[in-house]
C-alpha cells in the first residue's frame, strides 16, 4: 500500500513539473486577423430603377454573366436624341462638301446681270443730265441724285460679282473643317450614350461569387452606389495585424502557417504584402502585452485546394515559419 501511495505521489509530481514546463515554454511569433476575399463592386452608372435581378447572393457567376437590369426608357430617349443630332451634323457636312447648287450659281449670275443693267441705265441717265445741268436747264440737286444713283448701281454690280465668285469657288476649307468637327463631336456623344445604355444591363466584370445585392427589385440607387459586391480570386487570404516586436522578421515572401477557426490542420501561406506604417489594432488582434504596442497590417496568401471553399470573415491565427522549419 505504501509503495502504491509513493507511485501516485511521484506521478503527481511529474505531471506538475510537466505542466510547469509547458507554461514556461514561449509561444511562437503569431498574429491574429480574419479571412478575406478580394472584393469588387459594381456601381450604379445612373440613378434608374431596378427592373430585373438576374443573380442571387451566394451564387457563383462567370465573367460577363448578367446581374441586374436598370430601366432603359430615359437613356434610350437620350440616345435617340443624340443620334438625330449626329445625322443632322452629317447632313450639314455633306452639304458643305457638295458645295453650292447649280441653281444657286445661276441665280447669282441672273442677279449680276440685273445689277449690271440697272447700273448701265443709271449711268446713261446721269450722262444725259450732266449737259443739262451745266446749262442750268435742270436743278443741281437732280444731277447730284443721278450721280449717286449711278454710283450705287455700280456698287450693287460689284456685290453681285463677289457673291457669284463666292459660289463658284465653293466651300472654304475652314468651313469643311468646322463641319467635320461638329460631325465627329455628335458621333462621339452618340457613342457615349450608347455605352451608357449598355451599362444599364449590369454584368459581372470577373468570375466570382455574389456576396451582396444591397438593393432590391424596384429600388432606385443613387449614382455610384454599389448595386452588387462580388468575391473574386482563386482563394481567400488572411489579413492580420503583425505586432511590432516581430515586425522586423516578417517580410514579403516569408512562409506562414494559417490556423483557421474550426479547422484542425493549418493552411500553408506566404506573406504577399505588409504595411510599412503602423495602424490601429482591432480589439480581437490584441495579444497580452501587445495591446500597448504598434501593429502592421499584413496579407497572407493561402495556398492549396482546401482554402478555396472557406468563407470570408473567419478568425485566423498566423504563425510565421522560422528558417529551416516546414516546407
From TrEMBL:
YbhG-like alpha-helical hairpin domain segment(s): 76-198
Principal place of residence: other
Coiled coil: 72-99
Signal peptide residue numbers: 1-22
One protein family per Pfam: HH_YBHG
Compartment list: Cell envelope
Keywords (A to Z) from UniProt: Coiled coil, Signal
This protein's name: HlyD family secretion protein
Origin species: Lysobacter koreensis
Amino acid at each position: 500500500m505504501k509503495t502504491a501511495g509513493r507511485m501516485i505521489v511521484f506521478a503527481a509530481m511529474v505531471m506538475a513539473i510537466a505542466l510547469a514546463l509547458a507554461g514556461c515554454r514561449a509561444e511562437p511569433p503569431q498574429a491574429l486577423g480574419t479571412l478575406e476575399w478580394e472584393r469588387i463592386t459594381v456601381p450604379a452608372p445612373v440613378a434608374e430603377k431596378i427592373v430585373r435581378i438576374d443573380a442571387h447572393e451566394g451564387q457563383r457567376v462567370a465573367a460577363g454573366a448578367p446581374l441586374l437590369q436598370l430601366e432603359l426608357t430615359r437613356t434610350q430617349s437620350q440616345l435617340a436624341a443624340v443620334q438625330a443630332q449626329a445625322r443632322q451634323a452629317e447632313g450639314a457636312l455633306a452639304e458643305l462638301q457638295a458645295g453650292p447648287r447649280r441653281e444657286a450659281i445661276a441665280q447669282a449670275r441672273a442677279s449680276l446681270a440685273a445689277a449690271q443693267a440697272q447700273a448701265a441705265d443709271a449711268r446713261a441717265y446721269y450722262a444725259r443730265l450732266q449737259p443739262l445741268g451745266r446749262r442750268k436747264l435742270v436743278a443741281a440737286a437732280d444731277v447730284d441724285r443721278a450721280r449717286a444713283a449711278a454710283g450705287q448701281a455700280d456698287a450693287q454690280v460689284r456685290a453681285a460679282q463677289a457673291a457669284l465668285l463666292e459660289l463658284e469657288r465653293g466651300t472654304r476649307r475652314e468651313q469643311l473643317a468646322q463641319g467635320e468637327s461638329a460631325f465627329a463631336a455628335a458621333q462621339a456623344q452618340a457613342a457615349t450614350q450608347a455605352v451608357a445604355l449598355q451599362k444599364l444591363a449590369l454584368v459581372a466584370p470577373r468570375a466570382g461569387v455574389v456576396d451582396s445585392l444591397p438593393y432590391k427589385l424596384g429600388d432606385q440607387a443613387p449614382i455610384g452606389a454599389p448595386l452588387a459586391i462580388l468575391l473574386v480570386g482563386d482563394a481567400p487570404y488572411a489579413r492580420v495585424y503583425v505586432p511590432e516586436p516581430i515586425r522586423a522578421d516578417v517580410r514579403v515572401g516569408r512562409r506562414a502557417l494559417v490556423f483557421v477557426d474550426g479547422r484542425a490542420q493549418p493552411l500553408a501561406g506566404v506573406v504577399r504584402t505588409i504595411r510599412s506604417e503602423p495602424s490601429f489594432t482591432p480589439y480581437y488582434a490584441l495579444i497580452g502585452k501587445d495591446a500597448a504596442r504598434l501593429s502592421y497590417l499584413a496579407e497572407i496568401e493561402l495556398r492549396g485546394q482546401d482554402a478555396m471553399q472557406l468563407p470570408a470573415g473567419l478568425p485566423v491565427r498566423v504563425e510565421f515559419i522560422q528558417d529551416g522549419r516546414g516546407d
